[in-house]
Amino acid sequence: MIKFILAAIWICAVSVGAVLYSFQFSQARNTAEPPPAFFGGLDHISTDLVSVPLVRDGSVEGYFLTRLSYAIDSEKLKALTVPVSAVLVDEIYSYLYANPQIDYSKEGAFDIGAFRDGLRDRINERVDSKLIHEIFIEQADYLTKDEIRSNTARRRIGPGEGAAQAPSKSGAH
Q: What domain of life does the native source organism fall in (predicted)?
């Protein structure tokens, strides 16, 4: 009988210990830091091609063309009342016009890392939250006004239309 009572007390003590341990373990998991940004909780949004003119001395010198993708916090995205694409495109224009030191017309003068970080920080500052975690550049080009004109002229003329026509070999002179 005493062995039966000691076994019952032992089973109760182990059960209480297991419950306390599991409770403490679950509390520790809740206070652990969330997984890194690339492993969940983020949505991916891409913008259409954005064309920003480079204006110097009152005239357009060329166009900076970019297509960007954003890693966005999905919970904060749901809370936005303004379409996120409008905020992103507006901030691209504002950021590029507000930073005249960004010179994408000179080869090697455009710092991609500074562009990404600065744009991300400006967007997060504007929405007053860490909405954007990462910016990915899908496309970034600079076209001068002359390059655009020559491409337009080539499309208008068409292939073979600008070259001199060879005489026909039909036999009629």
A: Bacteria
* pLDDT (0 to 100) of residue 101: 65
Please give the C-alpha separations between residue 95 and each of 82, 102, 170, in angstroms, as whole numbers: 19, 10, 63
- Residue 134 vs residues 18, 48, 62, 120: alpha-carbon distances, Å: 42, 17, 28, 7
129 Cβ contact partners less than 8 Å away, ≥ 6 residues apart: 73, 76
| pLDDT in the model for residue 76 | 85
What's the confidence (pLDDT) of residue 136? 92
- pLDDT score of 159: 59
Domain layout of the chain by residue ranges: 37-144
Which CATH number does the domain 37-144 belong to among 3.30.479.30, 3.40.50.720, 3.40.630.30, 3.90.650.10?
3.30.479.30
d(CA 147, CA 153): 10
The pLDDT value recorded for residue 121 is 93
Nearby residues of 104 by Cβ (< 8 Å), 6 or more positions away? 54, 64, 110, 140, 142
- Calculate the CA dihedral of residues 28, 30, 35, 37 and round it to 10 degrees: -140
